[in-house]
Amino acid sequence: MQRARFLAGWVLLVVAMVALAACGSTTDSGGGDGAGGQAAGGAAGGLPKLAQKDSYTVCFPQTEENNPWRLAQTASIKEETSKRGWKLVYTNAAGSAAKQVADVQSCIAQKVDVIWLPPREEKPLATAVKQAKQAGIPVFLLDRNVDQSLAKAGEDYVAFIGSDFVEEGKRAAEWLVKETGGKANIIQLLGTSGASPANDRRKGFEDAIKGQSGMKVLASQDGDFNRDKGRQVMETLLRAHPDVDAVYAHNDEMAIGAIAALKAAGRKPGQDVTLVSIDGERAALEAIVDGELGASVECNPRFGPKAAETTLAYAAGQTIPPKIINPDQFFDASNAKENIAAAY
Ligand code: AHR
Fold first, then answer.
1. Which of 76, 103, 250, 300 is the most buried (most CB within 10 A)?
2. What is the fold of 57-163+301-327?
3. Separation of CA 199 and ligand 1 centre (Å)
């Protein structure tokens, strides 16, 4: 009996040791140079390692290049990698999540060292993130996130670097409540359906106005973060809701499209309709100075330096937090003019 208890104790100890070893391991299966070479950094949880090297091959599969925010993001990545003498594999998915998945797969086949991915939509790109992990290539999510029930930071990808989109929606709502005295008939122009900024900016805004009985969302429709789609959607919604007196657009481009639609319909943006949006691009700051746009919550697109620093810290074996949140400013009539020169 005593011998049986002794044996059972040993079996338990061995099982616990094996489990502990599995938890702390990193994989370096497949992949190219990413896992090999000299001292390799890597977080716990089975993430691929990244060797410390003089130069890296970085994959940046961009979502689309149809607005100033995206162009500024790409420019920042190109500038940073070239400054460091790193090789950049850049692609443009032209607004197609399927193409972006294929672009990630092509980077995996090319055995890049690391992937900096802005996932166009939350669900389809989660699979591609997992494929990169399987191939031994660490992934950093830039600006947009993936569905957290499908892939997680510290397990499937290293970390998310970007803005707090829920907070952006909340800041836009708080400004609008103050500006309208808590009474507004709102049209909400949504970002790309299935994209994390669209989901989170909607949540942040709608949660923030929940307790305000005078703040009514008349309609919410997808404008795909695109200026002309924003204009078209606003044109249609304006016909259905002539009592609109406020617009919340998930990005500046759609707000600028909405301003055009309002003017075409004989309305006065900034006077009989109050607009608030997100990004802080140059055209938006100019619209604030012109009195047509009320405010814009900044969403900083300049990711290059932070992405490179975090990649190097990871290669050096430092612990990377699962979320690295960019600090963002807020632009309104009080500061738009002085920020135009530095805007994109
Ligand atoms: O993911 C960030 C959003 O994507 C920006 O607000 C928008 O302009 C871009 O297309």
1. 250
2. Rossmann fold (3.40.50)
3. 12
